[in-house]
Amino acid sequence: MATKQILRAQLRSRPTNGHTVFLPHVRKLVLEFCQHYPSSANTRTFISGHLERVARENPHVEFVLKQRNGHEPIARGFYANGRDKVIPLNKLEVTGIERKVQLLLDSSGAKIKPLKGARTVESTTESARGIWSGLHVDTPFTI
After folding, report:
1. 27 with 78: CB under 8 angstroms?
2. CA 99, 101, 102, 107 torsion: positive or negative?
3. Which of 27, 79, 99, 139 has the lowest tally of Cβ within 10 angstroms?
4. Per-residue pLDDT tens over the stretch 91-118
5. Strand partners, 62
6. Alpha-carbon Rg of the chain, whole angstroms?
7. 49, 42 in Cβ contact below 8 A?
8. CA distances (Å), origin 123, targets 128, 129, 132
9. pTM over 0.85
10. What is the number of alpha carbons within 13 Å of residue 135 lying toward its C-beta?
11. Cβ of 89: how many Cβ atoms within 10 Å?
């Protein structure tokens, strides 16, 4: 009896999202801030007080702190599909910064597609014309 040869490449499985496994889209989150700008004060407070908890809750994400003197604070998320998203953090309170960081963590990194120019749904059957009302019939509708 002949045996079928199993190639090594066939034994590997591609990691995909499904009912048994979940791979998060975000892989790295960079917080860029200035040590002296007043607009970075809340970002520095978030880093010193809340970032450790967020990092422990998301062990799959690499958190990087980058000091950029003379620049406004930003949060930059890098995703598995090769894209990145940037959110400015100036004029935000600490809770707002935490929400924006969570937004980057929950985002897929996919390009935002406008719904306005999207193709409309076309039907093969003709639709009913007009609005039906129980008051516009010969015998009124009763409940």
Report:
1. yes
2. positive
3. 139
4. 899 999 999 999 999 988 888 777 776 6
5. 28
6. 26
7. no
8. 12, 14, 20
9. no
10. 1
11. 21
